[in-house]
Design goal:
- The structure holds three protein chains of three kinds.
- Helix content of chain A is about 70%, strand content about 0%.
- Chain A contains 16 helices and four strands.
- Chain B is mainly α.
- Chain B has three domains: about 130 residues, no CATH class; about 70 residues, no CATH class; about 300 residues, ABC transporter involved in vitamin B12 uptake, BtuC.
- Chain B has a five-stranded antiparallel sheet with strand order 4-3-2-1-5. A two-stranded antiparallel ribbon of chain B has the order 6-7.
- In chain B, helix 9 packs parallel to helix 11, helix 11 packs across helix 19 and helix 19 packs across helix 20.
- Chain B is elongated and about 100 Å long.
- In chain B, about 45% of the residues are buried.
- Chain C is globular.
- In chain C, about 40% of the residues lie in helices and about 25% in strands.
- In chain C, the strands form two sheets. Chain C has a six-stranded mixed sheet, with helices on both faces. A four-stranded antiparallel sheet of chain C has the order 2-1-4-5, covered by helices on one side.
- In chain C, helix 4 packs parallel to helix 7.
- Chain C folds into two domains: about 150 residues, P-loop containing nucleotide triphosphate hydrolases (Rossmann fold, 3-Layer(aba) Sandwich); about 80 residues, no CATH class.
- The chains are: A mainly alpha, B mainly alpha, C alpha/beta.
- At the A-B interface, helix 6, helix 7, helix 12 and helix 14 of A face helix 14, helix 19 and helix 21 of B.
- Chain B: InterPro entries: ABC_transp_permease, ABC_UrtB_bac, BCAA_transport_permease.
- Chain B: GO terms for molecular function: transmembrane transporter activity.
- Chain B: It is found in: Cell membrane.
- Chain B: It comes from Bradyrhizobium rifense.
Chain lengths: ~375, ~525, ~250
């Protein structure tokens, strides 16, 4: 990726978004660490972890938007890639516990001792090394997505059929990870983490750093998505989304494009999961629940699919609302609200918040041609002119 | 009654040994023997037990069991003996005539430890000849398993008197089991015994034959070995039959859950993720119907399902029409959005039911005609599963007939095949859409009535069926009801044959993976429509 | 066999004994057709004659049950998929104009250009002067220069038809399959389209499916009439339209 590709056609909205994420990524941890506890501007540690979670969700939302918003692939199984990344990180964290576990076994994590494992399963080897785990964070979801996508796209499974089998995929994984003999801790999953790269995961400094890293992850993911969708490949993806068979007749190998973007998206979801796990301190099979994946889709729909900023904002807004409502007296009504959100957004706001805002801005600009031409001269709204 | 019975059976086997001693040669009139209970003398009581137990009188069992429980009352003055029932009513032990009350002078006949053993033994042999068919059968079965030598005589005695065919067979098996293990039985007897047990041919027969030891005559050992292999092969066949039955049963459940979806998704092309909630609503309708019946008209309980079926259809169907009119009709041609909106709807419906009925499982009972089971060869078939299979096929056939022969069915097919053409021919397409969706939802509601009989009725009921239902419809081929039928039964049977090999969860995962692979191979299912029409 | 070999090597497109049936319905029945390099051929026929299905077969969308489909005398099209066939140099315009509605006219043409269509190629693509010049030229040919930055979805029906023809030009295939190019066009537009196709035919082999007899007459090329999936008549427009069987088919029995 050339710098040219990363910076190409960063419009004003994207720039503001990136600056805001970068600012928050620095300011929130700093205020948490430097300001005295209880001060008005001090962000309490629990909020750092909570916002860290939202940022991870925003990365997941970006990965979904990349395939759904730009290529028309509605995956109802992206939670699976998120969870796989999370499990890869969880395995690393489990290996770091070492003799500090309840059973004090230097090699085997507690649940394995409990389940009478005599030795470490082969697929657990290497996870004591961070670089290996980090590689697996990308590789495990990527490989699954590649195999799944290779089969599905080659056979031209599209539309709702694809959605349904991605849902079946995450459901199958849910069942598998619930099993104790699958070797990933069964329904309890993995928790009680101690260290990450030698730092205590509970420590405020580590939490701040993790938050910063999550924001960095969001920025990098955003730039990658941006580079992809603003390249010619992005135009091909949109072409595939709007008229798949027309693209084939133009000589585009649709399955290769879908496979590329699906795998890329799965890797991003994996990274989101890996950043998520040390901040929430647990990973268990419920992350594979089909409901989670669909909920992530609605974040994108709320924010505005086909707009990267919208997807990320949607994730943050919906999850903030979820935290807000599920912790108060309105808790029993949260599912009503979430359900209504699904219905209302699809019926009344199909472009999402940001998409609708963009459309409105464009419409009002057309009414004022002078302003429009002025903006065009800036090269902001018409990126192609700059080339 | 059942606990009482099993308690008796336990003691029975242990005490058979004593029966030989307990049955004296003495045989007097039944009434004289009964009177002896009033003597308050242990040896007289012992004698009386023996006589009564071997008398064959229908009062023998109530008298001895009353003696065991301390409910046998004897009046030393009048020498009259009474049996006080567990319900407090009393009869004259000698005649069986009901009496108004037991005289105050009467007291319970006393027992010592030796007598208690006699009582147990007597009860054991009486159970083999108990008037209750089930008790006799169970007694014979337990002798078969224990094959105590001492039980031979009572078993033969019971065999001579037995008239019921199945008990007679069971007693014959028990006798054969005893003879097979009896060291001084002749070779001919043993060979006959092997043949009898081989004819029985079940897992227990197999266990018994594998257990005969090495000190048998060579001919018997050989016969036993061949019997074992023949039983094993027949058992293998039966286990396949069993799996097939379980598979059919699971298939019928899948079909039931998927059949409504085959209409909404298969025929209309609407992805209704709230389909499972329609099933759940049907189940809750059943719950409400049963609640009303329980509190108001308990006598109607056996008809509760018959009442619930049309109600569930109407309730779920009406909700379906409402959903179609208020949400889905705005989303035609946008399947992915439909999917999301209906998923949201499913959350709302679940939460609504949770708010109204609470988050826990609600009790839905089985009517008497749906409880119990019967044996077919070596397999057991429960009535509820059988009825669900029958019911499912009936619903399927009615639906097929409806689509084929009614005006609505014709309009439905017309609209789904060519909406614009149908509209221009004067069909009110939006009305047909609403009714079709209502029909699919209503059938899901009916499915809920049936599923309430075998599954927990909770707000999450529908969730567990939605993925399976979609798999069935997609696997069978969209737009083809027969495909759904074949798909459901194929998946059901495949699942049940995989289960013993791979375990329940891995079996399910394997099926999901196989379906995913299958869809890649044939994206449009088993019975796919072909041609240009598909693309439209 | 001998006949086939000699003819097949020289023909741009060669169909022989092609059969397709959908659930027992014979959409294409023993269809045989040959298109010489540089030729323009008009295909006519009533609804359901198998015209579109024939195009589906040539472009790899539908696989025939039996029969031979050769491109350029050597390539067996029945074994290839749409992408591969497009790469070989067969372009197709659909019956219903199919352009990428949410992208600009310029981008539509950019996507159609026959440059590197691989994932890597498009991801790291950077525009070149040659490409822009080609796009400009096509825009001029299809008279959409002023609309280059408009969304394709906002074009009129006729403009969309032309944009799709323009995409074919950008694709620069050896063989163009054009399905009903003048459906829904005004007379003037129809005339211009005929001129455009004739212009294109100077450098490309073209197969046009059309109902509009005036248009077909204006093209002035050899006409093939299909009926029930097989060739009913072949010749000049006058020969075909005076053919008794063709009249019978069109006017009904």
């Amino acid at each position: 990726m050339t710098p040219h590709m990363l910076t190409r056609s960063l419009d004003r909205g994207a720039t503001i978004f990136l600056l805001a994420v970068a600012a928050l990524g620095v300011l929130i941890p700093l205020s948490n660490l430097l300001l005295p506890a209880g001060s008005f501007f001090q962000v309490p540690t629990y909020l750092v972890a909570l916002w860290g979670k939202y940022v991870c969700y925003a990365i997941l939302a970006l990965s979904i938007d990349l395939i759904w918003g730009y290529c028309g692939i509605l995956s109802l199984g992206h939670g699976a890639f998120f969870a796989l990344g999370g499990y890869a990180m969880g395995m690393y964290l489990m290996r770091q516990i070492g003799t500090r576990g309840v059973y004090g076994n230097p090699i085997l994590p507690d649940f394995m001792v409990f389940l009478n494992y005599s030795k470490l399963p082969w697929y657990w080897h290497g996870f004591d090394m961070f670089w290996f785990a980090a590689l697996m964070v990308l590789f495990a979801p990527g490989l699954l997505a590649f195999c799944f996508g290779w089969l599905a796209f080659r056979s031209r499974v599209t539309g709702v059929y694809l959605s349904i089998i991605t849902q079946a995929m995450t459901y199958a994984l849910l069942l598998a990870f619930f099993r104790n003999d699958f070797g990933f801790g069964g329904n309890n999953g993995m928790t009680d983490f101690k260290d990450i790269l030698g730092f205590n995961v509970q420590a405020e400094g580590t939490r701040g750093a993790l938050f910063m890293l999550s924001c960095l992850g969001l920025i990098v993911s955003f730039l990658i998505c941006r580079a992809v969708v603003s390249s010619k490949l992005g135009k091909v993806l949109i072409a595939i989304r709007d008229a798949e068979s027309r693209s084939r007749f133009l000589g585009y190998r649709v399955e290769s494009y879908k496979l590329f973007v699906f795998t890329l998206s799965a890797c991003m979801a994996g990274v989101a999961g890996a950043l998520y796990v040390p901040q929430v301190g647990i990973i268990n099979p419920s992350e594979f629940a089909p409901g989670n994946s669909i909920e992530a889709v609605i974040w994108v729909a709320v924010g505005g699919r086909g707009t990267l900023v919208g997807a990320a904002l949607g994730a943050i807004v919906v999850n903030y609302a979820k935290t807000f409502f599920t912790s108060g007296v309105l808790a029993p009504y949260w599912l009503f609200m979430l359900g209504a959100l699904f219905i209302l957004v699809t019926l009344l706001l199909p472009k999402g918040i940001v998409g609708t805002f963009n459309a409105w801005r464009e419409a009002s600009r057309e009414k004022r041609p002078v302003a429009a031409s002025a903006a065009a001269e800036d090269g902001v709204t018409e990126p192609k002119m700059a080339e | 009654m059942p606990t009482n019975l099993s308690a008796r059976l336990c003691t029975f086997v242990l005490s058979l040994f004593l029966i030989a001693f307990a049955l004296p040669a003495f045989a007097g009139p039944f009434e004289d023997a009964v009177a002896k209970f009033a003597n308050d003398d242990y040896s007289d009581t012992d004698e009386a037990i023996g006589v009564v137990a071997s008398s064959g009188n229908k009062l023998a069992f109530p008298i001895i069991s009353a003696l065991q429980d301390g409910r046998l009352m004897a009046d030393p003055d009048s020498k009259k003996v009474y049996v006080t029932g567990t319900d407090g009513k009393s009869i004259d032990a000698a005649t069986g005539e009901p009496v108004a009350s037991v005289p105050d002078s009467a007291s319970a006949v006393r027992l010592n430890n030796r007598l208690r053993r006699s009582v147990d033994a007597a009860l054991g042999s009486l159970t083999l000849q108990s008037p209750d068919l089930g008790a006799r059968l169970q007694a014979a079965q337990s002798v078969f398993k224990s094959h105590e030598e001492t039980a031979l005589e009572p078993v033969e005695g019971a065999l001579a008197k037995e008239t019921n065919k199945s008990v007679k067979t069971a007693l014959g098996d028990a006798r054969a089991a005893i003879l097979l293990f009896k060291s001084d039985a002749t070779e001919v007897q043993k060979l006959e015994a092997v043949a009898t047990i081989k004819a029985r041919g079940d897992q227990e027969a197999l266990a018994l034959l594998s257990d005969i030891g090495t000190d048998q005559p060579p001919s018997v050992a050989k016969a036993a070995a061949s019997a074992i292999s023949s039983i094993q092969s027949s058992l293998a066949v039966w286990s396949s039959v069993q799996n097939a039955w379980y598979g059919l049963s699971l298939g019928s459940v899948l079909l039931l859950a998927a059949i409504g979806l085959a209409i909404t998704f298969g025929v209309m092309g609407v992805i209704n993720m709230a389909h499972g909630e329609m099933v759940m609503i049907g189940a809750y309708t059943t719950f409400v119907v049963q609640e009303v019946i329980r509190t108001r008209y308990p006598a109607l309980f056996d008809y509760s399902l018959l009442i619930a079926v049309p109600l569930a259809f109407l309730v779920a169907g009406a909700i379906g029409v409402l959903i179609e009119r208020s949400i889905i009709r705005f989303l035609y041609g946008r399947p992915l959005e439909t999917l999301l909106a209906t998923w949201g709807l499913s959350l709302v419906l679940q939460q609504a039911v949770r708010t109204m009925f609470g988050p826990t499982n609600r009790e839905v009972g089985n009517p008497s005609w749906m409880s119990g089971a019967f044996d077919l060869g070596q397999i057991t078939i429960t009535y509820n599963r059988l009825w669900i299979l029958v019911f499912t096929l009936a619903v399927f056939m009615i639906l097929l007939a409806m689509l084929r022969y009614t005006a609505l069915g014709l309009e439905m097919r017309a609209v789904t095949q060519n909406r614009r053409m149908a509209a221009s021919m004067g069909i009110a397409t939006s009305r047909v859409d609403a009714l079709t969706f209502g029909l699919g939802s209503g059938i899901a509601g009916i499915a809920g009535v049936a599923l309430s009989q075998i599954d927990n009725v909770s707000p999450n009921l529908g969730q567990s069926y939605i993925i399976d239902s979609f798999m069935v419809v997609v696997f069978g081929g969209v737009g083809n009801l027969w495909g759904t039928l074949v798909g459901a039964f194929t998946l059901g049977i495949a699942n049940k044959f995989l289960e013993p090999v791979a375990g329940a969860v891995l079996g399910k995962i394997a099926i999901l993976v196989l379906i995913i692979l299958f869809i890649q191979k044939r994206p449009r299912g088993l019975f796919a429509l072909k041609g240009r029409a598909v693309e439209a | 066999m001998n006949v086939m070999d000699t003819r097949a090597t020289s023909a741009m497109l060669y169909l022989d004994g092609v059969h397709v049936s959908f659930d027992g319905f014979h959409a294409i029945n023993n269809l045989s057709l040959t298109l010489a390099p540089g030729e323009m051929r008009a295909i006519i026929g009533p609804n359901g004659a198998g015209k579109t299905t024939m195009m589906d077969i040539i472009t790899g969308k539908t696989k025939p049950d039996e029969g031979t489909v050769l491109f350029d005398g050597v390539t067996d099209l029945t074994r290839l998929d749409e992408t591969r066939i497009a790469e070989l140099g067969i372009g197709r315009k659909f019956q219903k104009p199919t352009v990428f509605e949410s992208q600009t006219v310029h981008d539509n043409l950019l996507l159609a250009l026959n440059v590197d269509h691989s994932v890597k190629g498009t991801l790291f693509w950077r525009g070149s002067r040659a490409e822009s010049e080609r796009i400009d030229k096509v825009l001029e040919t299809i008279r959409l220069t002023d609309a280059r930055n408009r969304l394709a979805g906002s074009l009129s029906h006729g403009q969309k038809q032309w944009l799709e023809i323009g995409m074919l030009l950008a694709q620069d295939p050896k063989l163009l399959l054009v399905d009903e190019p003048v459906a829904g066009m005004t007379d003037v537009e129809t005339h211009l389209t005929a001129e455009l196709l004739k212009e294109i035919n100077k450098t490309h082999t073209v197969m046009v499916v059309e109902h509009d007899m005036t248009f077909v007459r204006e093209l002035g090329v050899k006409v093939t009439c299909l009926h029930e999936g097989t060739v009913l008549a072949e010749g000049t427009i006058d020969q075909v339209s005076s053919n008794e069987r063709v009249i019978e088919v069109y006017l009904g029995r």
